[in-house]
Amino acid sequence: MRRVFGLIGGRLGHSYSPQIHRALGCKGYKLYELKPEELESFLRRPDLGGVNVTIPYKRDVFAYVDYVNRAAYEIGAINTIVNRNGELEGCNTDKYGLEYALRRGGIDPRGKKVAVLGSGGTSHTAVAAAKSLGAREIVVISRSGENNYENLERNADTQILINTTPVGMYPNCPAAPVDLRAFPRLEGVMDVVYNPIRTGLLMQAEELGIPHAGGLAMLVAQAKAAEERFFLRNIDDSKIEEITASLARDATNIVLIGMPGSGKTTIGKFIASLSGRELVDIDKIITAREGTRPGDIITARGEAEFRKIETEVLREVCASGGRIVTTGGGCVTVPENYPILHQSGRIYRVDRALEELSTRGRPLSAGGIGGLRALLEKRGPLYDRFADATIKNDGTLEEAARKIWSDFYENTRT
Q: Residue 74 is part of which domain span?
């Protein structure tokens, strides 16, 4: 009998689970959206091999399993069920995944005060993980509890912060549940959200130089632990890293910034051809929406008005990843645009010699070489501040595209 493996839940939408489990060796892994009345009959089917469980059934399934492992019992949630010769074993592998992500990010709760944001199911997992890792004190901060978002000063001595709320998740990003400056003693930040790759919380931790970890490695690690239970086999942790890196690349935009006329659009087309990714030209989207080109908008309505439109389009386009995004030369003049681009992107500055830049149809590049030099003096430091890497466009445009694609493949990580 061919056994059934997959993920059960209410509304599953887009899930990485099939991709992850197939990479781990479970080729038949599928998604099963179930209504509450369908849950028992599904779990009683004789061909059931094993399933992962997500919202809203992590507690409901306790009624249908024959025994549970210690983690599931302590947390009060089951996220993995395995059929053992007709008996159902309920397990929790989320705790393992969260602990793995903390270790991976260099975050050690041992002997420290840990604050957990949120009081839902994942909060219980975070509390259990912090406890098993030796936290000195654990505080749960929620909207209406004793410790809440209105009295954060009570827990200003927090050393490790774990966010288990959905704040900052796509499409409401970048956003953050708290300002990390409320916790001046922070030594580590974990956010279980994995879409986008960098949440608002993680970007602030990055800015403040605080060790941090996102939810993608947690997701893969818990799947690896579930897979080991499904098939009673050990899987090396290197597989977690391999799959996490692959997912990170798939979910990350390649963002091109640089002076007007530096070749961003054409280079983007070459990268699209190399990678099979969608190319999104921000200026073209603005032209289609406004019915006129960016240069004409700037001339008629002013640069400030154009920048507002540009930021709105960037926010919409860059909330999700997996694309090639070519930007206008002046997007770096708006500080708000950096987190928008950075949340799901690796940012490349395309650098080209001034005398090689095209100025046709670009009002802000007018004035010949002198005008371009003045513009570069103003924008150059901003390009450097935004960019993860700089690519010299001093050969063919195809060569520059290959350099970017190679760098992206080697250096995109979570």
A: 4-92
* For the chain, the helix, strand and coil percentages under 3-state DSSP, each to the nearest 5: 45, 20, 35
Please confirm, yes or no, whether 131 is among the known catalytic residues.
Answer: no
Q: How many residues does the chain have?
A: 414
- Measured in whole angstroms, the distance separating CA 79 from the mean position of its chain's CA atoms is 22
| Both tokens assigned to 129 | 């993980």
CB 232 within 8 A of CB 303: no
Considering its fold, how many domains does the chain have in total?
3
Instruction: Looking at 256-367, list the stretches that DSSP marks H as alpha helix, in order from N- to C-terminal side.
Output: 264-275, 282-290, 294-301, 303-317, 337-342
CA proximity to 330, closest of 355, 313, 354, 306: 306
**pLDDT one-digit tens code per residue, 150-186:** 999 999 999 999 999 999 998 888 899 999 999 999 9
Q: 114: number of CA atoms within 13 Å, CB side?
A: 27
The whole-number average pLDDT for the span 343-363 is: 81
Distances in whole angstroms, Cα of residue 188 to Cα of each of 194, 211, 333: 17, 5, 31
CATH code for position 279: 3.40.50.300
Looking at the fold, whether 320 and 382 belong to one and the same domain comes out as: yes
Q: Residue 248: count other Cβ atoms within 10 Å of its Cβ.
A: 19
pLDDT tens for 261-297 read: 899 999 999 999 999 999 999 999 999 999 999 989 9
The one catalytic residue among 27, 30, 35, 58:
58
Q: Is the peptide bond before 177 cis (omega within 30 degrees of 0)?
A: no
Closest CA to 81 of 100, 67, 95: 67
